[in-house]
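Tokens in:
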């Protein structure tokens, strides 16, 4: 039985190169010409090996997500929530400014601006980023249950804050922010961390709104 002609290129290498193109230029910014040039193959070979551009991008996402250090959950298994969050944010700085890779984060930069044709890609990236939010929220919920965070702390809002800082670090890295500058941002973000003397983000049960308050130390 015929098996067809073997491919004249390394698919792993080609996929890694495609990842870097999408990482630098985003989904819509990466043209077919950009991809095939960087991958070292022609368009028919790309389609035969990886499918269309959207399918290629999904394969790139799977490769990216499988790399060590991408998912937030990998940084959260520390004794305290504050240590876990600091570990997450410091690691975000390190990854977003690594000179060996494009700046920022593919999950943030990949589809910040896309037209109607990129809606499915935008939705996919949003779902993956939401997975990180859920991981952080669950870690903070556990911290409240264990007494590591004040009982009035709202884990959902605090988790959203942490992820917003993390995503902002990735965006700033693309704009050229240095590791020192971004670690200073982390320092500021952690200054208001809820403690027994400072409850931070809480849920106002009477109004049903989230409020920021600083309790006086006993």
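Residues out:
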């Amino acid at each position: 039985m015929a098996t067809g002609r073997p491919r004249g290129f390394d698919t792993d290498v080609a996929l890694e190169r495609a990842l870097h193109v999408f990482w630098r230029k985003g989904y819509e910014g990466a043209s077919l010409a950009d991809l095939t040039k960087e991958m070292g193959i022609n368009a028919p070979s790309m389609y035969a090996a990886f499918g269309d551009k959207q399918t290629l991008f999904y394969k790139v996402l799977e490769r990216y997500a499988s790399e060590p250090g991408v998912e937030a959950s990998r940084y959260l298994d520390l004794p305290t929530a504050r240590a876990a969050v600091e570990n997450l944010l410091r690691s975000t700085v390190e990854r977003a400014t690594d000179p060996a890779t494009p700046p920022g984060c593919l999950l943030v930069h990949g589809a910040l601006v896309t037209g109607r044709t990129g809606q499915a890609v935008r939705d996919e990236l949003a779902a993956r980023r939401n997975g990180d939010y859920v991981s952080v929220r669950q870690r903070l919920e556990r911290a409240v249950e264990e007494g590591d965070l004040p009982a009035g702390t709202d884990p959902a809002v605090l988790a959203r804050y942490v992820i917003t800082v993390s995503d902002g670090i990735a965006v700033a890295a693309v704009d050229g922010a240095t590791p020192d500058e971004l670690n200073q941002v982390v320092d500021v973000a952690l200054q208001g961390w809820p403690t027994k003397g400072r409850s931070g983000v809480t849920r106002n049960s009477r109004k049903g709104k989230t409020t920021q308050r600083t309790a006086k130390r006993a």
